[in-house]
Amino acid sequence: MTNPAERLVDLLDLERIELDIFRGRSPDESLQRVFGGQVAGQALVAAGRTTDGQRPVHSLHAYFLRPGRPGVPIVYQVERVRDGRSFTTRRVVAIQQGRTIFNLTASFHSPEPGIEQQLPMPDVPGPEGLPTLADEVRAHLGTLPEAFARMERRQPFDIRYVERLRWTHEELKGAEPRSAVWMRAVGPLGDDPLVHTCALTYASDMMLLDAVRVPIEPLWGPRGFDMASLDHAMWFHRPFRTDEWFLYEQESPVATGGRGLARGRIYDRAGRLLVSVVQEGLFRPLPPAEGAADGG
């Protein structure tokens, strides 16, 4: 299986080992810890598979408690908290090697008519005329480093920054804590709405905390901070497909006390607000020699 989008769908296809217990794979990649979006997406799959499938998820709230180990399976235990007339609530605990690493509460809601209003989508250029991330790196460095090329081959999403990347601290002067990217899966994800929701949950953790870093350091290059997601919340407003272009607008209202807060809004090409996201992350300065060539 070579298509990264197919690998993402496979990653989200959990093994049911008991009525409300599931097991997910954790790829053995050259990462210090399991990617948080993977755990959140798999946990939401587990929650969704204990419902009747007629109620889409409308919100999730999650905490990252311990770093997960790549290459080690993760077990997801689901508690059926409530099955009401309009809402279904599930609580999920992710366990790896006997220790809880993550927990999530998700709420599912039967669609119903109601009021309609939203903040407008920002006026930005469409994705087709924007360079890919690989193009930006190649233009800046004159070549595409092999480490980045390997990452690109595994990347399940096409990512295009609305504004050109800043590569030096000089270019960061006056930058506001904001970022925006167009994204879509690099291949079809099928027609199961739960897969699209969980794939977007995966994607939502990829770069939201970048908004905190924009005024501080270039997003790609040596990193000056050890970063970790602390908690993550999402509200799903409308149906969507994650294999179609969506705009992920991000901003950071505050960073203090070793933590940074970021908010995100996800729009489709028609300007409909699909999803709202909030995340807090831990930021601890690294000694200069430890800053890894990392980013995003």
Write the layout of secondary structure elements.
Elements: H1 4-11, E1 15-18, E2 21-24, H2 36-48, E3 57-64, E4 74-83, E5 87-96, E6 99-109, H3 133-141, H4 146-154, E7 157-161, E8 178-185, H5 193-204, H6 210-213, E9 220-222, E10 225-236, E11 246-256, E12 259-268, E13 273-285, E14 293-295
Antiparallel strand pairs: 1-2, 2-4, 3-6, 3-10, 4-5, 5-6, 7-8, 8-11, 9-14, 10-13, 11-12, 12-13
Helical stretch tally: 6
In the CATH hierarchy, what is the class?
Answer: Mainly Beta
Question: How many DSSP-defined strands?
Answer: 14
Spatially, the strands of the biggest sheet line up as: 1-2-4-5-6-3-10-13-12-11-8-7
Overall description:
- This protein has a single domain (4-111, 127-285), classed as Beta Barrel (Porin).
- It is 19% helix and 38% strand.
- It has helices spanning 4-11, 36-48, 133-141, 146-154, 193-204, 210-213, and strands spanning 15-18, 21-24, 57-64, 74-83, 87-96, 99-109, 157-161, 178-185, 220-222, 225-236, 246-256, 259-268, 273-285, 293-295.
- Strand 11 (246-256) and strand 12 form a beta hairpin.
- The longest helix has 13 residues, at 36-48.
- It is globular and about 55 Å long.
- The relative contact order is 0.16.
- Residues 291-296 have low confidence and may be disordered.
What brief labels describe this structure?
296 residues, alpha+beta, Porin, 12-stranded antiparallel beta sheet, two-stranded antiparallel sheet, 6 helices, 14 strands, 38% strand, globular
